[in-house]
Each structure stands twice: as structure tokens, then as C-alpha cells.
From TrEMBL:
SMART domains: LytTR. It holds the Pfam family LytTR. The keyword Ligase does not apply. It comes from the Bacteria. InterPro entries: LytR-like, LytTR_DNA-bd_dom. This is LytTr DNA-binding domain-containing protein. Residues 14-113 form the HTH LytTR-type domain. PANTHER family: STAGE 0 SPORULATION PROTEIN A HOMOLOG, TRANSCRIPTIONAL REGULATOR-RELATED. One of its GO terms (molecular function) is phosphorelay response regulator activity. Keywords: DNA-binding.
């Protein structure tokens, strides 16, 4: 298999370790990530999953054209955003806070989707 195809396949999913095994999550199924101390909750179309990884270590693995940080505890999939009002984003039934420092970036992205 050529490297270009391998890279594409690697970019469409994320492997996260849970206990003694790895779980594959498709990027298109991810809604957002929420940090909590030394673990991260991944909210997907299929439910929510907790992983023992810090969001700051997970974020560099995410494609920057699909994901953005909106708060110190949240990284969201930009295509999952259904609404934006004041200092909050709406993704599905979830109300995500937007920090003042990220508000302008969120506005730019929201206007482009």
C-alpha cells in the first residue's frame, strides 16, 4: 500500500487505549472531547467514552481542519456544531462553553460552515 493511502486511513480514525486494549473511533463520529484532570471523555454519535489520557496529549493527534479548542476543557468537531450563541456552542443536545480567548476563532469557523 502506498504511503498516501496509509496516511488517509490513519487520519480518518483515532486509536485510544482503554485498560489493556485499544479502541478505534472514527473521526466523523466524534462530536467533542471534554477534559477532566488526567482523563478525557470522548462524546460520539454512539455515546460517551472515558479514556485515561489528557486532552493536551490527545489534541495534537487531531486534524486541525476538523477540530478546534474552544475552552481549556473542550475540543470540538467543527462539523458537529449545530448552533452558537454568546459564549456557548451547541452540539446535539450538549451546551459547550466557549472561553473569551477562543470566541473570535469560533465565530470565524461558525460563519464558514
Amino acid at each position: 500500500m502506498n504511503n498516501r493511502i496509509a496516511n488517509v486511513k490513519l487520519l480518518d480514525n483515532l486509536l485510544l487505549q482503554k485498560n489493556d486494549h485499544f479502541e478505534r473511533i472514527l473521526m466523523k463520529d466524534i462530536l467533542f472531547f471534554k477534559a477532566d484532570a488526567d482523563y478525557c471523555t470522548v462524546y460520539t454519535k454512539l455515546g460517551r467514552f472515558d479514556y485515561a489520557v489528557e486532552l493536551t496529549k490527545l489534541e495534537p493527534q487531531l486534524p486541525t481542519n476538523l477540530f478546534m479548542r474552544v475552552h481549556k476543557n473542550y475540543v470540538v468537531h467543527v462539523n458537529a456544531i449545530s448552533g452558537f450563541e454568546g459564549r456557548f456552542l451547541y452540539i446535539s443536545e450538549n451546551k459547550i462553553p466557549v472561553s473569551k480567548q477562543y470566541q473570535d476563532d469560533v465565530l470565524k469557523v461558525f460563519r464558514s460552515i
